[in-house]
Amino acid sequence: xxxxxxxxxxxxxxxxxxxxxxxxxxxxxxxxxxxxxxxxxxxxxxxxxxxxxxxxxxxxxxxxxxxxxxxxxxxxxxxxxxxxxxxxxxxxxxxxxxxxxxxxxxxxxxxxxxxxxxxxxxxxxxxxxxxxxxxxxxxxxxxxxxxxxxxxxxxxxxxxxxxxxxxxxxxxxxxxxxxxxxxxxxxxxxxxxxxxxxxxxxxxxxxxxxxxxxxxxxxxxxxxxxxxxxxxxxxxxxxxxxxxxxxxxxxxxxxxxxxxxxxxxxxxxxxxxxxxxxxxxxxxxxxxxxxxxxxxxxxxxxxxxxxxxxxxxxxxxxxxxxxxxxxxxxxxxxxxxxxxxxxxxxxxxxxxxxxxxxxxxxxxxxxxxxxxxxxxxxxxxxxxxxxxxxxxxxxxxxx
Amino acid sequence: xxxxxxxxxxxxxxxxxxxxxxxxxxxxxxxxxxxxxxxxxxxxxxxxxxxxxxxxxxxxxxxxxxxxxxxxxxxxxxxxxxxxxxxxxxxxxxxxxxxxxxxxxxxxxxxxxxxxxxxxxxxxxxxxxxxxxxxxxxxxxxxxxxxxxxxxxxxxxxxxxxxxxxxxxxxxxxxxxxxxxxxxxxxxxxxxxxxxxxxxxxxxxxxxxxxxxxxxxxxxxxxxxxxxxxxxxxxxxxxxxxxxxxxxxxxxxxxxxxxxxxxxxxxxxxxxxxxxxxxxxxxxxxxxxxxxxxxxxxxxxxxxxxxxxxxxxxxxxxxxxxxxxxxxxxxxxxxxxxxxxxxxxxxxxxxxxxxxxxxxxxxxxxxxxxxxxxxxxxxxxxxxxxxxxxxxxxxxxxxxxxxxxxxxxxxxxxxxxxxxxxxxxxxxxxxxxxxxxxxxxxxxxxxxxxxxxxxxxxxxxxxxxxxxxxxxxxxxxxxxxxxxxxxxxxxxxxxxxxxxxxxxxxxxxxxxxxxxxxxxxxxxx
Lengths: 399, 525
Hints:
By secondary structure, chain A is an alpha/beta fold. Chain A has helices at residues 2-18, 54-57, 79-85, 106-111, 114-122, 140-145, 154-168, 177-185, 202-205, 239-249, 311-339, 346-353, 355-361, 365-371, 392-398; strands at 30-41, 44-52, 69-76, 93-95, 101-104, 131-135, 192-199, 219-229, 232-236, 255-260, 266-283, 286-302, 373-384. Chain A has 2 domains: 28-236, no CATH class; 240-399, GMP Synthetase, Chain A, domain 3. Chain A is built from 15 helices and 13 strands. In chain A, strands 1, 2, 3, 4, 5, 6, 7, 8 and 9 form a 9-stranded mixed sheet that branches. A 4-stranded mixed sheet of chain A has the order 10-11-12-13. In chain A, strand 1 and strand 2 (44-52) form a beta hairpin. In chain A, helix 5 (114-122) crosses helix 8 (177-185), helix 10 crosses helix 11 (311-339) and helix 12 (346-353) packs across helix 13 (355-361). By secondary structure, chain B is of the alpha+beta class. Helices cover 44% and strands 12% of the residues of chain B. In chain B, strand 6 (197-204) and strand 7 form a beta hairpin. Chain B is elongated. Chain A binds chain B through residues 2, 6, 13, 16-17, 19, 21-28, 30, 32, 34, 52, 54-55, 57-61, 95, 97-98, 100, 125, 127, and chain B through 256, 339-341, 343-344, 348, 351-361, 364-366, 445, 448-449, 451-454, 457. Chain B: It holds the Pfam family GerA. Chain B: Belongs to the GerABKA family.
């Protein structure tokens, strides 16, 4: 019995060697991609892959003589085909699990991104934690090939920059694949993507020479939101409008909002917390939406003459703040209505509220949205005034 | 030095006692002293360490006495003072015509009135005689009496009680077992002053006739286990028992398993605490390593120190040991699996850093890992066998070969050096050497699994390992208890250790009838 078992176990162990390390990939046979850029090229696509050069990245071995990333690019009828064609240029197989960003060229975005979403969600190699951005006024390839400082890998610079600006400036919105897919498949909501532009020349930016100066001559700048209608890019929001969009969606984690003081002068409020509540309903057969926002903030900078020690003055600032934010939100909603794309998901809210009515509304929702009356209200609270109350200038003039 | 008589308890006739080495017609002693002495010398081949002394004793020298002993095994002091002096000087002054003398024969007189020795036994045949003689007793034979006396004079050069080399502690007793059985039993007796603490002794080994003792507390140890130990020891028939490992191999439950089903230790405190939990200790003469049965898996992760330190510290350290068990077992295989199959699992920055290190390394990660692991095993084995004088030289060379030089030469990546070092160090955390050995071997199996199937292989291996562990048992006790079968009450001292006032019962899965350890604050209502 025991001998039989031992024999069986030995045989099982021996079969291990027959597999020949099935689907094994040694690390130094992989080209670890950090970003993919997809552009339109004729009927098909041009796929640009930014591959990390590990020995340049590592602290110990890096010589600083070579570029930390290598750009490979190929065209094909489909994205997948183009990706595999890259092996004609690359010595190693492109490995996609570690990509941080996917950049879609503007031309492609205007043409429709549905087919890209299919590839990104179908391929098993992707982790779905990368950000998707739309290139504004430029090709995705140009964005990716510009080298960066501080973060050696451009894709990391873009991804981290996106995270930081989303957290502390809030005019951007980091979109991952699942959110994009959800918005795209929903009838009552259209997707947005954060845009990325290039300031300066891509061809000078891709050289190491560019990195030698303290002020980079070309640099990627994360920009404003791109509005999509279904899967097609239809327009761009301005910075104000992007902020307004995030206020409506309750995405604002922290930002700076400047208001005109009642007594003249400007004052900046650091927004600390926002909570947005979107409501939709059918009233007299007409859809209506309501956006309620409550926010808290501290005074971060003051140039005005108001005496900030007085609560009634603070209340005045709160009122001013409410007006400013309300204005931003209206701006964003107005722009979206102009573009005819419900990026806020008002339709989705109405569907949840009244599914029966939504069934009829669904077909003509885009037109309905353009005429939708949206009630915007803001409740702002100033909590603290920073480490001082009145500005030194003010204190001095009072004396 | 005086020794108590060993108490032989023969439940069944011992098989090797039947096959005595000395086979001659008429095994009993004769009345003729000369004949007896000649026979002894002849049988032992006139070995030079046998001392035979003949003399005449009594007031008128009427008693012809011979004594025989093995030089080196006896305490010369005892032989001189209590045998030679007693017989040659004291006997001369004794009034041998007293009533006692008339009633008894000479041998009885010597035994009862003359010899001031504590341990005296009458012997009738040569088998007995040789056994006593070769164990270090002194044989006294009188002309005209067909019997002899064995007088306990055992005393040989002994390694003193030292701190055990293989199991050192920060806190706790520092004495360790020695090579002498009697010293070892004394170390146990000194700790348990309980009449129910029994030490049963038998002889094993046709030629070595090694004393093997079974120590347990009657009532605390399960009778079933004690009987099983006797039964298994009875079935042993070999010519030599030089170390407890000889016995271990015969009595363990799963000799082909990589996991030890018998515990061995050099520490008396460990043995005593095990005996108090209801285990049975097997002590073998000639080795400081004592066997403990039955044993369960978690016991290999419990150090005696756990019970001397505070319970919270002990619990954390115990959990650390379990962690190290898995580290030592799986780190190289996990590294290989992650870097060759599951690169998506590694955080990007770490992956890039590992990839940078692996640039230019000519071997696949699996070969690299095997290379490093094997060279470490070589170094380790060499380290044990090395003469002390060259030890430091080898360790320098080893550190260079395994570390700096291998990395510089581009043969291995620095990450692999870290992996091997972590594994090696974690391996030494195990308080039991034999469990550490099983981990060493299993590590290579897992490495092969990982390099062929990746994480899938590791998980398969782990499942197989757990199944195997759950199937093992030691002297009737499931190896994985109290986890499988789950005994909630015994969890108090398994993975964790609760304070002693919370643990007032002996482990359920080992003990006999006597379960309660005492009334303590936690027990009092």
